[in-house]
Write a structure and sequence with these properties.
The chain is α+β, with helices and mostly antiparallel strands.
């Protein structure tokens, strides 16, 4: 089933300035995000409910974080994974646009601002001479669903009237998490019990239900909905992305 809201978002995204909405870990430092390309690992494969990857290979020294596809296509490709049941689609994404590099506690390891930064879980057996990094597909789906939700909420708030966040999320083809404890059987890591609890918590506080509950509080007007979502995205996403925003002020 295709939701009208999902189609509307696709059309709106196509019209929007790409560099303004695309999160990226670029393969090279460039001043224009629209010109950046993604850094992708040398090898990616599908494991049991997880992605397994290595940054390089002993066979070819040039195969170390190869240059992937343009950053401008990453966001749209990523949010399509929110409801994707086929694990091979995640492998395909990682080969084209790179990996999330989630730590065992479920947070990105691309920024020094992340307290538990240190890299993803690793398997005991090497692959092509490299330690094998792994990330749970459940966490990828969770992040993709939240990203899709953010896109739809943002587009809805651009229309100039207060929104019903719950309805907007449903129109995006997403389901709200009815019970936070449901995360416990979705998230599996190779770490200890404390790490697993941290993983659940870090994804839980970003969940769609949190956004909906806050945006739909009685008395919220358009300005407060916009302000809260902007703060939430800045704090929960940009602050951990290792990206530094640039403000362009070209008028009075």
């Amino acid at each position: 089933m295709v939701h009208n809201g999902w189609l509307d978002a696709k059309i709106d995204i196509a019209r929007m300035e790409r560099r303004a909405i695309t999160p990226v870990i670029a393969g090279a430092m460039v001043s224009d995000l629209a010109l950046a390309r993604m850094a992708v690992p040398a090898r990616v494969r599908l494991g049991p409910d997880r992605l397994e990857w290595i940054p390089g290979t002993d066979e070819d020294a040039t195969h170390w974080w190869r240059e992937g596809e343009p950053a401008s296509g990453a966001l749209w490709a990523f949010i399509k994974l929110a409801t994707e049941p086929d694990g091979e689609r995640f492998v395909d994404f990682a080969r084209r646009f790179g990996v999330l590099a989630l730590t065992p506690a479920g947070r990105p390891s691309v920024s020094r601002q992340v307290p538990d930064a240190g890299g993803p879980d690793q398997l005991e057996e090497p692959w092509c001479g490299f330690a094998v990094n792994c990330e749970p597909l459940a966490a990828w789906r969770a992040y993709a669903a939240i990203a899709r939700g953010i896109v739809h909420l943002t587009l809805a708030l651009r229309r100039g009237t207060p929104i019903n966040a719950k309805r907007t999320i449903e129109e995006a083809g997403l389901e709200l998490e009815a019970d936070p404890s449901a995360w416990k059987f979705q998230i599996t890591t190779l770490g200890d019990e404390r790490t697993k609890r941290d993983h659940i918590f870090n994804l839980h506080h970003r969940r769609l239900s949190t956004m909906v509950e806050t945006l739909d509080r009685p008395g919220r007007d358009l300005a407060s909905q916009r302000q809260w979502l902007a703060f939430w995205v800045t704090y929960g996403w940009i602050a951990e992305s290792a990206l530094i925003p640039t403000i362009t002020w070209d008028s009075d």
